[in-house]
Every structure is written in C-alpha cells, then in structure tokens.
Amino acid sequence: MKHHFNFSLKNYNTFGVESVARELIEFDEEEELLKFFRDNIPENKLILGGGSNILFTKDFEGTVIHYKKKGIEILSEDDNEIILRSHAGEDWDALVEFSVQNNWYGIENLSLIPGTVGAAPVQNIGAYGVEMKDCLIEVEGVSLLELKKEILPAAKCNFGYRTSIFKEKLKNQFLITAVVIKLSKTKKLNLDYRALRDYFQGRNFEEIDINEVRKGVIEIRQSKLPNPSELGNAGSFFKNPVIDEERLSYFQSLYRDIPYHKIGEAIYKVPAAWLIEKAGLKGKRIGNVDVHKNQALVIVNYGDATGKEIIDFAEMVKNTVNEKFGIKLEYEVNII
Ligand code: FAD
Ligand code: EPU
Q1: What is the pLDDT of residue 39?
Q2: Second-level CATH architecture of 72-224
Q3: What pLDDT is recorded for position 83?
Q4: Domain 242-335 is found in CATH 1.10.10.10
Q5: pLDDT at residue number 303
Q6: Is 332 designated active site?
Q7: Can you give the residue ranges of every domain in the chain?
Q8: What values do phi and psi take at 235, rounded to 5?
Q9: Residue ranges of the chain whose pLDDT lies below 70
Q10: What pLDDT is attached to residue 254?
C-alpha cells in the first residue's frame, strides 16, 4: 500500500492533463483496503484505473483509490468453455492477448482497448460488435458504502451501451476487484462489423483464425485512433446517439448518405463522428485541442492543454452539433 498527499495525476490520465489529488492511496490487496477504511470511509472519493476514460477539469479535493492487484487464473474448464478470473489491476489488453494465444474465443474483438480489467465492466467496453457483457459472469468487489465484499452477477449490473450500474447508481461506491468471464474453446468469431468485413474482404471467412482477428482489430484501431502515449486522448469523447425512425427518415431526406445501425424496433444508432464531421469540425483546432483528423469522435490534447480547455472545446462541439442537427450528444468520458 502507498499513501500519497497532494499527488499529481498528470501521468495517471491518458489526456495527460494536470490535476492534483488531495490524497491518493494505492492498494495491492482487498484486505489492505478493508482494514485501511475500517473506521473512516472518505466522503469524497474517486476510483481510478488507468485513467483512459476520464477528464480532470480541476484538482480533486478528495481521496483517489487505485487498486493494483494483477493476475489471471483459470477457475474451471471443460471441452467447450473456460472460466477465467482476472484481478482488476490487470491490463485489459494483456487479458485479451492471453486469451487469444490460448485460442479462447470471445474477447478478441476487444483487442487494444486501453485501461484495466477492473474498469471494463464500468462502461461495458465495446468494439467491433462485441461488448464486455457478452462474456461476463460476475464482478467481485468491495462496497465502499458498507465496506464489505460483494459479488454481483452480470444480470444485476444493468449493462447497456457504454453504461452499467457502476457508471450510474454505484459510481465510486463499488470498487471492482476482479472480473469472472466465460470464453469458448470452440471456434466462434464475430466478423459482422463493417470495418472488420472490409478488412477481410476477399478472404474465405471460414479460414480466418483468432490471431488474425486480433491483428486486424489492432491494425484498424491504429489507423484511426491516436496512441495516447503520443497524443493525449481518451478514445471516443461522446457516445453515439440513438434516434427514432421518424428522426432518421427526416435526416435521410436531407442527407442520403447518413450511416445508421438498427439497434431495436424503430430505434437506430447514428455515428456521432459523422455528425461532428458533417458539422465541419473534423480537424478543427483551438489552441492545443482538436477534433482528431482520422476519427471525429476523438478529442486530442496536443501538449499543454488544461482539462478546462478540453471540456470547453467539447462543449463547443456539442453545441455546434445540437445547432445543426438538434441532437444533444452525451459524453462517454467521465468528467471530474
Ligand atoms: P479509468 O479511466 O481509470 O476509469 C474509468 C471509469 O471507471 C471511472 O469512472 C472510474 O471511477 C471507474 N473505475 C475504474 N476502475 C474501477 C474499478 N476497479 N472499480 C470500479 N470503478 C472503476 N472504450 C470502449 O468501450 N471501446 C473502445 O474501443 C475504446 N477505445 C479507446 C481508445 C483509446 C485510444 C482510449 C484512450 C480509450 C478508449 N476507450 C474505449 C475508453 C477506455 O479505454 C475504457 O473505458 C477503459 O475501460 C477505461 O479503463 P481505465 O482503467 O483506464 O479506467
Ligand atoms: N465516421 C465518420 N467520420 C469519422 C469517423 C467515423 O463519418 O471521422 C462514420 C463512418 O461512417 C463510420 C462510422 O462513423 O462507418 C462508424 O465509425 P467507427 O467504426 O470508427 O466507429 P465509431 O462509432 O466512431 C465506435 C466506438 C468506439 C469503437 C468503434 C469500433 C462509441 C462512442 N465509439 O466508434 O469506441 O472502438 O465503434 O467498434 O461507441 C470508445 O468508446 O472510446 C471507442 C473508441
């Protein structure tokens, strides 16, 4: 365990913005945390993983909790399935790589998503047609309200598109310490997502193997998304908005090329990146902040931007899209 005071979080968030935490405590074990907070659970607290989905707009006048335990173990297996437990401090992509190397199917489309395993259920991470909830059995953690260990089965996690109970009702109230997932030992690939289909165009899909899928996903991502170790960012800043059939028909009458994806009966998701681009903001730069030239959903810090400059810029993007399309974009990134 390490206890820091007045701690700079600049290297603890992928935007690379400065923010000083009044207190930061790094825990290696659940028991340490339970003992440490036994008599006094801080009122104002923030759980921090790898800081890849967070924007600090000011200093944090409270206690940052950072849980570091790593490790992946096999809980059970048969000829068809394997059940793994990963501790929360493990790097998400290390878990994906380990699974792919063993030909365990289910999370290969989630390759190269930055961050920790513990944060993966928080916004139900998703990419290329797969979401965390598709393989999740249960989440283990500590309730920071009652200071006791708890296990939440997937059905109680209220998973949705980029959301869960941990991003809403239990935000900063439930420290995820481990995640239990089920993967398939028999070949099951999901190649339906447009960008993946295009990547494998001309190939016999039956012959594609799990290593190629991981490689494909990594290449697609690297061609669009800036690497946070070179350019500060937190991936998609906004969620893709959901609209009804009437709205979609109206937009189609104005823009014949509007991309959309049916997600339910008369409900459609439209790419926020397309809206931002059509609003003329792709590549738009103010000071040290811009809309990334290859992916309009990503806001980039070119160096010394403050969190305040980034959030002001994001508000400008939101207002411009609202004025043009009457659609209010929602932040995907957690704003502190
Ligand atoms: P943090 O940013 O530290 O925290 C995120 C949230 O989770 C915070 O609210 C925090 O309080 C909470 N949290 C963190 N750890 C715990 C814990 N142990 N217990 C309880 N709460 C916790 N996301 C996608 O879904 N799909 C993508 O394709 C994708 N691509 C990205 C690409 C780039 C280049 C970047 C920078 C980000 C991308 N993201 C994507 C967003 C991000 O990687 C994920 O949200 C990731 O799960 C965040 O992990 P983290 O450990 O960095 O969490
Ligand atoms: N598009 C544009 N302009 C752009 C980029 C995209 O018009 O600059 C349009 C294109 O029509 C494209 C469509 O948007 O076909 C979708 O683009 P892409 O496949 O890149 O996906 P996205 O909707 O922009 C979402 C996730 C990503 C995830 C990818 C792949 C959200 C908010 N974002 O992006 O997640 O990696 O799909 O599945 O849902 C993240 O959450 O941080 C993240 C990066």
Answers
A1: 82
A2: 2-Layer Sandwich (3.30)
A3: 98
A4: no
A5: 87
A6: yes
A7: 2-67, 72-224, 242-335
A8: 70, -150
A9: none
A10: 92
